[in-house]
Amino acid sequence: xxxxxxxxxxxxxxxxxxxxxxxxxxxxxxxxxxxxxxxxxxxxxxxxxxxxxxxxxxxxxxxxxxxxxxxxxxxxxxxxxxxxxxxxxxxxxxxxxxxxxxxxxxxxxxxxxxxxxxxxxxxxxxxxxxxx
Length: 132
Ligand SMILES: [Zn+2]
Hints:
Layout: H1 4-12, H2 18-59, H3 68-93, E1 108-109, E2 118-119
Antiparallel strand pairs: 1-2
Zinc ion binds near residues 125, 127, 128 and 130.
């Protein structure tokens, strides 16, 4: 597993990770989204449980209440979140992707012929109209 220092120093040496990063980024993004959805669900369940407990306390019937379904549901969510986080760790472990998540600056290519700067992706030189 590469440490942060190793990754950044490797990047400074100009090693290009672009080839391997996309697949990992997709996986990381997908897993992060799933973890966030599970956490949102947990927050909602906790709020519902809190509201129920509050109502039961007000009614004076908390001692006799059965909250096992709510507790089991929350335990289940906790387990799922832990599993997803482990998957995330696995993907991130050997991946330098998080270092390069930022969008690269627009690359300006040197034209071969006219000497004008051509923006990346352009088909024609914006100055003289020469086909790139
Ligand atoms: Zn030109």
